[in-house]
Write a structure and sequence with these properties.
The chain has a single domain, classed as Nuclear Transport Factor 2, Chain: A, CATH 3.10.450. Helices cover 23% and strands 44% of the residues. The chain has helices at residues 3-18, 22-25, 47-55; strands at 29-37, 42-45, 61-71, 74-83, 86-97, 100-109. It has a 6-stranded mixed β-sheet with strand order 2-1-6-5-4-3, covered by helices on one side. The chain starts with a helix and ends in a 17-residue tail after the last strand. The model has no long low-confidence stretch (mean pLDDT 95).
Length: 126
């Protein structure tokens, strides 16, 4: 699979994630894919289990992709995942095998107030 094909699959994946289209969202994964959330110490094995765990999430969620970078079998997506109006800055690292995600690791960070000690060098992002 070429890079532009993987990029198109990622675009479909994140658009489906934002639309709560679970069937389309999970087409990107291999049957035996592994998803890890290091901050909570969770590992989910298998595409069906990944999809079921996400479908069971009761919060209203939205995905705003900031950027996607990668090549070959390694791709990184930065996005804002908003649960019930509260943003979490998220990084997803996806490892592809045979054109499908074999392993994904997601890291989450809550927003925080800017530090006064660096104010003279900072510009607001938006």
């Amino acid at each position: 699979m070429q890079d532009h094909d993987i990029r198109a699959a990622l675009d479909r994946h994140w658009a489906a994630s934002d639309a709560n289209d679970f069937a389309t969202e999970h087409q990107i994964y291999q049957e035996d894919a592994v998803l890890e959330y290091p901050q909570s110490g969770e590992r989910i094995r298998g595409r069906r289990n990944i999809e079921a765990s996400r479908a069971a999430q009761p919060n209203r969620k939205r995905f705003t992709v900031r950027r996607i970078i990668g090549a070959g079998d390694l791709w990184v997506s930065e996005f804002v995942l908003t649960y019930d109006g509260r943003p979490s800055y998220t990084v997803s690292i996806m490892e592809f095998t045979d054109g499908k995600v074999a392993r994904e690791t997601q890291y989450f960070a809550d927003p925080f107030a800017p530090g006064a000690s660096r104010a003279q060098w900072v510009e607001p992002m938006g």
